[in-house]
Design goal:
Blueprint: H1 6-13, E1 18-19, E2 31-36, E3 40-47, E4 52-59, E5 65-71, E6 74-82, E7 87-93, E8 99-108, E9 112-119
Antiparallel strand pairs: 1-2, 2-3, 3-4, 4-5, 6-7, 7-8, 8-9
Length: 120
């Protein structure tokens, strides 16, 4: 998986990750980022070496799961927006020769997810 460095991820998620193995290089570890906005609570689990990405979004008031996304073949993660009031990432998913899935996820100010398939 192509991925920004750990400091960029800490910045966009506004969260210090909990790491399983605590290896020197986060790329070979499994990291969990937990953070929230005004309405939702987010939990992201990533294993870049294995190309795995999981997102769980729950409603802050009711603790109801709003969204769950588990991907096992993420080729690339990009930071689209990273500021105090706006944060967003883009995932490139899939290994098909002709098409790929692009997933845009906004965390702040409100949670939003856009999933589209496009030609390579």
């Amino acid at each position: 998986m192509e991925i920004p460095d750990e400091l960029n991820l800490i910045s966009v998620f506004a969260s210090i990750p909990k790491r399983i193995d605590k290896t020197e290089c986060f790329y070979y570890d499994k990291s969990t980022y937990s953070f929230e906005n005004d309405n939702e609570v987010f939990k992201i689990i990533m294993s870049p070496f294995y190309q795995e990405f999981t997102l769980r979004v729950t409603d802050k008031k009711s603790n109801t799961v709003l969204s769950y996304l588990e991907l096992l073949s993420v080729r690339k993660l990009e930071v689209v927006e990273d500021s105090k009031d706006h944060s967003a990432i883009r995932l490139f998913h899939g290994e098909a020769d002709r098409f790929e899935n692009v997933i845009d996820i906004s965390f702040k100010p409100k949670y939003k997810i856009i999933f589209r398939e496009q030609n390579r």
